């Protein structure tokens, strides 16, 4: 079954298209990585998948339903959750409070959001556990390491019980020492939630090749190549467009 289906998607911001004629089918449970040089259109395409950016042309379907004009809120209700390149959460709240708030916001229970002590539930516990932050649940979020802040953001997405998880640069800004831990965390998530579909944008090829079932190379807004990670990595076009200077063979 196809989770996310894009057919002939274009996006322009008033000028020439920055995403052009993108057709991409992502199966349920698949992890797809979108790679490409700066400005290739990865973030824009990600926004289209999250419903935050409206396609200028083409069609987007989620589990067979047309969501091209649906918007982010509707897609979130339908099970699409995302993280951001720069993690977004309340610094003054504890780790647990941030995850509870993400869960309540998803459930549109805003009245509870402003109550003094919004309550945790099993999904919150599972989300914290999945990212290894259970023991840090009472810590103010501001005291977390950069790696743990990314984990918190992933927990906040998981608290929305997503069927499609969009991870925008999950290791952006991390020190080299934190990256292997995040890769292991995401591998563990994939293994424990085989029905969850993931889309990842990443500049770090070690992240891409450790996690992706399929890699999509974007260049000038178009899909230049898509296939199995090894196929895409070894293709001359990939080296020409992208890997040339940025990929260190340190697997
Ligand atoms: N809101 C916007 N308004 C106008 N142009 C935009 C907007 N967002 C992105 N662009 C342009 O669209 C093109 C694609 O940008 P996008 O951020 O999607 O690429 P990217 O592959 O994610 O790049 P990076 O790897 O640097 O984050 C760029 O030329 C960018 O300047």
TrEMBL record:
SMART domains: AAA (SM00382)
NADP listed as a keyword: no
Coiled coil: none
Keywords for this protein: ATP-binding, Nucleotide-binding, Transport
Lineage: superkingdom: Bacteria
Residue ranges constituting the ABC transporter domain according to the UniProt record: 4-245
A GO molecular-function descriptor: ATP binding
Record-linked InterPro entries: AAA+_ATPase, ABC_AA/LPS_Transport, ABC_transporter-like_ATP-bd, P-loop_NTPase
Pfam families reported in the protein's UniProt record: ABC_tran
Name this polypeptide is given: ABC transporter ATP-binding protein
């Amino acid at each position: 079954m196809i989770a996310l289906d894009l057919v002939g998607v274009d996006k322009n911001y008033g000028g020439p298209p920055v995403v052009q004629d993108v057709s991409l089918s992502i199966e349920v449970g698949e992890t797809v990585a979108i790679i490409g040089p700066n400005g290739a259109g990865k973030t824009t395409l990600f926004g289209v998948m999250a419903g935050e950016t409206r396609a200028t042309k083409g069609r987007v379907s989620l589990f067979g339903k047309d969501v091209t004009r649906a918007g982010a809120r509707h897609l979130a209700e339908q099970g699409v959750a995302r993280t951001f390149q720069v993690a977004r959460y309340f610094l003054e709240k504890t780790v647990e409070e941030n995850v509870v708030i993400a869960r309540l916001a998803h459930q549109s229970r805003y009245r509870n959001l402003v109550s003094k002590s919004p309550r945790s539930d099993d999904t919150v516990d599972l989300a914290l556990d999945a990212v290894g932050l259970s023991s840090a649940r009472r810590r103010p979020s501001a005291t977390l390491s950069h790696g743990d802040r990314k984990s918190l953001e992933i927990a906040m997405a998981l608290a929305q019980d997503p069927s499609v998880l969009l991870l925008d640069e999950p290791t952006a800004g991390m020190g080299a020492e934190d990256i292997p831990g995040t890769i292991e965390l995401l591998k563990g998530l994939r293994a424990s939630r085989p029905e969850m579909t993931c889309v990842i944008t990443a500049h770090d090829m070690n992240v891409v090749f450790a996690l992706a079932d399929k890699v999509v190379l974007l260049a000038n807004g178009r899909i230049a190549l898509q296939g199995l990670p090894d196929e895409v990595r070894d293709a001359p076009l990939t080296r020409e467009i992208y890997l040339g200077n940025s990929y260190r063979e340190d697997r």
